[in-house]
Automatic annotation (TrEMBL):
It comes from the Bacteria. This is Ribbon-helix-helix protein, copG family. It comes from Nocardioides humi.
Length: 83
């Protein structure tokens, strides 16, 4: 396992500790999940940029469908959209 030391502003540190405690996680586990989510977003953004460069911009219909998917509750991607 790779060990990384970071420094954050005091208010960020307080908020991270609180969020981790509320979720029953260590600060390390919470930060690892946050970093993994940020990396997924980064690589998704790169992929979408490459896709649009090759195939053209997404249509408004495609964007509306994507927005509808993102409005679903987390963890429910296979279920019906929530109202």
């Amino acid at each position: 396992m790779d060990r990384i030391t970071i420094a954050v502003e005091d208010d960020i540190g307080v908020a991270v500790r609180k969020a981790a405690a509320e979720q029953g996680q260590s600060v390390s586990a919470w930060m690892a999940e946050a970093a993994a989510a940020r990396l997924r977003n980064h690589f998704l953004g790169q992929f979408l940029d490459e896709y649009e460069a090759e195939y053209g911009a997404f249509t408004e219909e495609e964007m509306a469908e994507a927005r509808a998917l993102f409005r679903r509750k987390p963890g429910r991607w296979k279920d019906e959209p929530t109202p």
